[in-house]
Amino acid sequence: MFPAKNNIIVGLAGQQNAGKSTIFNMLTGANQHIANYPGVTIDKKLGSYRDELGRVEVVDLPGTYSLTSFSLEERVARDFLLREKPDVIVNVIDASSLRRGLYFTFQMLEMSLPVVMALNMVDVAEGHGRRVDHEMLAGLLGVPVVPTVGRKGRGKAELRRAIRQVAKESTREGMSGEKADGGFWVDYGRLEEHIAAVQDQLAGSTALSKTVTLRWMAVKLLEEDTEAGKLLRRHHEQAEEVLELVHALVLAFQGEMDISPGDHIVSCRDRLSASIVEQCVEVGGADRVHFSEKIDRVLLHRGLAPVFLVLTVYLIYELSIVQGYKLTFLTWPALAWVRASVAGLLPDPGLLQDAMFRSLSLWMVDSVNTLLNYVPIFLILFALIAILEDSGYMARIAFILDRVFQSFGLHGQSTLPFILAGVFTGGCAVPGIMATKGIPDERSRLATILTVPYMNCMAKIPLYTLLVNIYFEAHKSFLMLFISTITVIMAMIVAKLLTSTILRGRETAPFVMEMPNYHLPTLTGVLRRALDRTWVFIKKVGTIVVAVAIVVYVLLQFPGLPEERTAVLDRRMDAAVATFQEDVKDTAYADLARGEMILELLNVSTAYREAKMAAATQERSQAVDQRYEALHPDLFPLLRARDAEARMVSRALRTLANERATLRTLIREETIVHSYFGRVGRALEPVTRFAGFDWKINVALISSFAARESSVATLGVLFQEGVDENVALEERMGRERDAGGKTPLHALALMLFFALYPPCLASTIMVKVQTGSYKWMFFSIIFPTIFGLAVASGVFSIGSTLGLSGIQAMGWFYGLALATAVGLSFVRDPAWERQRSGIVGPKEA
Amino acid sequence: MSHGRRRGRKPCMECPTRVSAREEQKADGRQVLTQVSNGCRCRIRRHNACGAIRQRLLDLGFVPDAEVEMIRCATLGDPLEMRLGDYYVTLRKREADLIEVRAD
């Protein structure tokens, strides 16, 4: 008689690794989006599908082992189940670890929630010789059980049907008002009488019985669950009396049985779970060792494990960074073509100064291009990391490395963020910081977030390469090794410092991790994750980089040159033009040197020279000639001068073009000198002097805060020497080195600062997102600035006082840092002491 | 540590226990999980942990009376990997120290 609801909400709950997301994808297909749970940083995945009755909205709850209140994920999942009251809950459970999965199911059944069980990965379980009788299981639990294989889409129709079925029943029940105690319950043996006593006391409140079942509440209270206590206070008039009774009963039970009711409850659940498994699961080959364990006997062998680990990391590095870099040779021409097309669409360059529209647009295209250039590398890197995660080896890496991380207050699961951010060379802090989500230990998670930016992200590499090529030509490989390891060492030192000082009071969690079975990753799963992460990188960084590129442009270009200076430069240009006109006035080309024509002449001849320079082969060079001959028949005789007169004019034109280039560079340089950034850079010189940075370096460093890529670009602009625009930046800075007395020590200090430099803007925004506080965002900017400057100043000042060469200073510093790190690793962790004295408890207790 | 060779499952008492400085503190005969050698089995007696740590251990199946088989330790001696029923779990020594066990 009750109309069934057509549009329903389904919650997807289950433990981590049960394949919840594959079931989510199976049910909803591509129709999904991500929202946030109010007030917390946990992603809320939403999706929907239609069946014959109407729309079914599916919410993917965070993966949790139980519904207590010790972690954020559990609180979020529980709040959703209690407050939003989904019509159906799909309990995704891993068929091969049914016994432990059932704890979670029991808790939901005790709450009388409308549950459908998706018995997932039945194929894997069968592969292990475990056949689950799902009909028997359904009979014992009193809920529908659907065997599924999420990865292959098996069981989709059956699961959808079961969802509808349960939704119909739950609507009917929901109409009848009070929450009835379900048909299923766990027998708690000697505790039953206490449960009954608490339940009696609870029955006094109708408000409470509308929200939850009383038996569940009684059990939760006897388990001394803090959230249950809060819920009680909110809904029950005599909450304090109930709590007093509970407390007395807990003590009585403990005295009688020598076990806390909490322990007793879980062991009862475990016993029931074991007996259900015994009845429903048929095990073939009782004592057989798992396939995964066989692999682990080799891969996790105490002596060999590090060897395999190093090999894996090397493989990742080789495939993504080295091979991916080769791929960029293929993609770069496409990006360059985009730039050229944009340049073609924009107004032509002016004689001395371009229209702002032109220069700003090109500036933005350049900024975006540098970023997009890394996309092939990221795709490969993220795909490889997804393979590591899906196969189960990532958990093994955490296992092998946990002892190291532990010494510095970090966590085995900090591995993934560090790898994503680029432990060796190349990565990005943005996905790195995002990956910290999986770390259950709050203190380690924060420490990881704050140290991940020290890794060598892709954008730091160009500056290192540049400086190493100029200053450390002879010790290249040493330097690269130094750079890739010093960042890890410094990150560990910082992590230790943070966790034993300001992060001291944060919650820690034990490193209890399930070793997942090895899976063969699926192509779609890996691709989806790799594309997702790359897309996040493109989107988040892309939007920010464009916005910041504009700001940096403004700060580097304004307020511009003083008028009298512009006038001086204009006069020089006019004089040059006049000379040129004088030179050619008696030739056949005099018409071309008149007024407006001269600008076109200059632009065409510059473009022609660039095109000729870019043409690698004879044929291409000829093709350029043909193109220009067709495009500019009147100018071409000058471009490729054949007779004496044309050669003379051409020479004069080249002189003019050179003068123009010199003046343009002068303007660019002086504009930066006069710009806001230039002023800040110079104002900072007294401070950065100790680290050996002059104002040019300061400007580059400041602008690289927007995006690291721009440091080299800015240096490129700052070190432009005028005429020969085609001389590599290496050479130009090399000249500066010879002239200005820059030493390898300067370069070392600069590299150290760059390694410890604050995260780029995109990363700091990610820090804000992941920590949920501006405080940490600002900390992540200010602390590394001071720390980096202190280290760079120390190395430079001490190095120059002692007269050390760059490579000597590097050696000493490396030794010192390593010794510090090793020393710090022996310092006792404050959290261990607390744990030993037994005062670690729930935060709200 | 040649865990590979000790494939047979023996109850705790037959296996030599790990030599540990902590043993002196456990003079009253109580045994903790860290003292169980690779390839040996034992049952959980009780937890000395509380709060979130206790809950996490329970969730992963370290419930009173459960059978645990020590599988291996990582290269640097910590964490430990063990088998609980049909799945494998890793635990740091610090936490394993908080779990009292008895021979089967």
Give structural notes:
The complex is a heterodimer of chains A (845) and B (104). Among the domains of chain A are: 8-175, Rossmann fold (3-Layer(aba) Sandwich); 189-288, Helix Hairpins; 563-672, no CATH class. In chain A, 65% of the residues lie in helices and 6% in strands. In chain A, strand 3 and strand 4 form a beta hairpin. In chain A, helix 15 (356-372) runs antiparallel to helix 23, helix 24 (563-584) packs antiparallel against helix 28 (644-674) and helix 25 packs antiparallel against helix 26. Chain B has 104 residues and is mainly beta. Chain B has one domain (10-102): Ferrous iron transport protein A (FeoA) (SH3 type barrels), CATH 2.30.30. Chain B contains two helices and seven strands, in the order E-E-E-H-E-E-E-H-E. In chain B, strands 1, 2, 3, 4, 5, 6 and 7 form a seven-stranded mixed beta sheet that branches. At the A-B interface, helix 3, helix 12, helix 13, helix 17 and strand 10 of A face helix 1, strand 4, strand 5 and strand 6 of B.
How large, in whole angstroms, is the Cα Rg of chain B?
13 Å
Which class of secondary structure composition applies to the elements of chain B? mainly beta
Based on DSSP secondary structure assignment, what is the total number of beta strands of chain B? 7
Q: Please, what is the CATH homologous superfamily of chain B?
A: Ferrous iron transport protein A (FeoA)
In CATH, what is the class of chain B? Mainly Beta
Helix content of chain B: 10-25%
Biggest interface pair, counts: A-B, 55 and 47 residues
CATH fold group of chain B: SH3 type barrels
CATH architecture of chain B: Roll
- Relative helix content of chain A: 55-70%
Largest sheet, spatial ordering of strands of chain A: 2-3-4-1-5-6-8
Q: How do the SSEs of chain B run, as a string of H and E?
A: EEEHEEEHE
Mean residue pLDDT of chain A: 80
Q: Report the mean per-residue pLDDT of chain B as an integer.
A: 73
Q: Which geometry of chain B do the CA atoms define? A: globular
Distance between the termini of chain B: 23 Å
**Oligomer category:** heterodimer
Could you tell me the radius of gyration of chain A in angstroms?
Answer: 34 Å
Strand content of chain A: 5-15%
